Amino acid sequence: MVKDVSGMDFRAVNDAIRAASGACELTGCCGQRFIAAGMADRDIVLRGTPGNALGAYLNGACLTVLGNAQDAVGDTMNAGRIVVHGNIGDAAGYAMRGGEILVRGNAGYRAGIHMKAYRDKAPLLVIGGAAGSFLGEYQSGGVIVVLGLDIGEKRIVGNFPCTGMHGGKLYLRSDCAGVRFPPQVTAHRADGGEMAEIEKILLDYCAAFGYGMDRIMRSPFTVVTPDTANPYRQMYVAN
Amino acid sequence: MNVKEGQVRIPSGCAIAAVLSRDGARISGEQIVRAMGPMHDRSNGLGGGFAGYGIYPAYKDFYALHLFFDCRDTRKACEALLKEGFEIWHAERIPTRKLPAITDEPIIWRYFVSPMPSVLSDLQLDEAEYVVRTVMKINTGLKGAYVFSSGKNMGAFKAVGFPEDVGAYYRLEEYAGYSWTAHGRYPTNTPGWWGGAHPFALLDWSVVHNGEISSYDANRRYLEMFGYRCHLQTDTEVITYAMDYLLRRQGLTLTEAAGVVAAPFWSTIGQKTDPAERAVYTYLRTVFSSLLVTGPFSIVLGFTGGLMALNDRLKLRSMVVGEKGERVFIASEEAAIRAMEPEAEHIWSPMGGEPVIIRVKEGVEL
């Protein structure tokens, strides 16, 4: 099904997706929120600019955005995949606990905020360009990768990355010379084993956007994890 | 009876948008109204408004005062007060369109005025300061009258309603300006009433704001020392007065004013490698510490010849900028920019505390 959703309310858009059998393509998206929220078994291509909370609570559906996405993409998603061919707004992958979000361009502030893992669930967020400030804020699980491809003079990440991080892993394709991390995390250059792990993680990403793995892996990566020797103790109360 | 700050709490939202043509080409008000469509759900019908610049070319040398009145007697009293200090060159009802969506309308007039030179020399005040004092005097002293716009060759238009309806109500498609700002309101903490809708305008400054100002009382108390009276039961007006104080009275640049209201963290200032830059930010944070605006905000400040967009330093509200040819667009959501210009390019998000200043090119007659 191909449907022009120009001027349609978000409820009507979601009703149209539910009514469709099989794959669908939505054209003329312009700000409709909550598209495909909670959906499990759909394959949806979106043209235009879908609104905030795209794929919120997504539960297995596959979304491809041929343009930019706005704020809070994949909010609390549980499973499935969201591929964004442009840039992504603030708070991408907010509290996601499963599935993957693959972005070709840049991410706004707070990408991967409060991302978590749960039992067999391990979410993945890959940003091809640069990430804004507060990347991985309060991250408690899952994996975030930032590649810094084609960003020119732009810094790979803004200020205050990994603030409050207490779980999961973050990979930055950079030596992170000028990046300041908080004292409760550790950052080190990826070793051979970790590079192999990163390569495995990026297989889908390279396939989605047609990138050669060699080009990406030619650069050093920095690995950030919480520092278990320096946990968040007595920040608010004695514990 | 309006419920006041502290007596009611309503959850947050709001939408802002703006457009400017760098070559000064006039843009119909219809275009900015269109921006608010895709962001409809960010408002709740308790306020919408717009500011247009370059919309009164025939009266561009006069202050355009837009006023709400509760009744005819108030209007008569207000006109008598105005005539004591101003020449009134033209006065009329602001044209509106009756709509079922817009109710409880006050009486809405505009006056194109100039302060009398004899009054100014008696008081030893410049024009702008006299206009500000008159606005404060009417808004705090004349019950039932409220000046909601007081600049030259610009005007604010606001009401209780959804912004699309407010635009239709004020017939904005009949105006053309080189820049516009817009707001859809979802009031936080305070009631929705006509005076509390955005933009908040004083002289040529106008502010549309999405957010919630935690520092409101600290900012308000500081500004009261300089004659600014916050009387609108909402937080945003304090930003307008702060901008007037910093830009007009203190003579700061826009970038410096942004460095006051959205001052970088001390740790960020400490990391600046250029000692001169570090000294400037230290100075601004120290001298104007009471005008630091905390809490989430994204604002667009309109002024003669330009716009400034600014986020709080933590960037707790969204803001997107784009352009097409000579036109620059700002909005809470990219979809709003696309509604104004489907082919908009170079879409990007400014960083928290990073002012985006757009001006009409030099030499273009406004």
How would you portray this structure in words?
The complex is a heterodimer of chains A (239) and B (366). Chain A is an alpha/beta fold. Chain A has 2 domains: 1-86; 116-239, Glutamate synthase, alpha subunit, C-terminal domain (Pectate Lyase C-like), CATH 2.160.20. Chain A is 14% helix and 26% strand. In chain A, strand 1, helix 1 and strand 2 (24-30) form a beta-alpha-beta unit. Chain A is globular. Chain B has one domain: Aminohydrolase, N-terminal nucleophile (Ntn) domain (Glutamine Phosphoribosylpyrophosphate, subunit 1, domain 1). Helices cover 28% and strands 27% of the residues of chain B. In chain B, a hairpin with a 2-residue loop joins strand 15 and strand 16 (327-331). The A-B interface holds A 10, 30-33, 48-49, 51-52, 68, 70-71, 87, 89-90, 108-109, 132-134, 158-159, 180 and B 38-39, 41, 268, 271, 314-315, 318, 320, 333-336, 338-339, 347, 349, 351-352.
User: Largest chain interface and its two residue counts?
Assistant: A-B, 23 and 19 residues
| CATH hierarchy: architecture of the largest domain in chain A | 3 Solenoid
* CATH topology description of the largest domain in chain A: Pectate Lyase C-like
CATH topology heading of chain B: Glutamine Phosphoribosylpyrophosphate, subunit 1, domain 1
Q: How many beta-strand runs of chain B?
A: 18
Q: What spatial form of chain B do the alpha-carbon principal axes imply?
A: globular
Oligomer: heterodimer
Residue runs with pLDDT of under 50 for 5 or more positions of chain B: 1-12
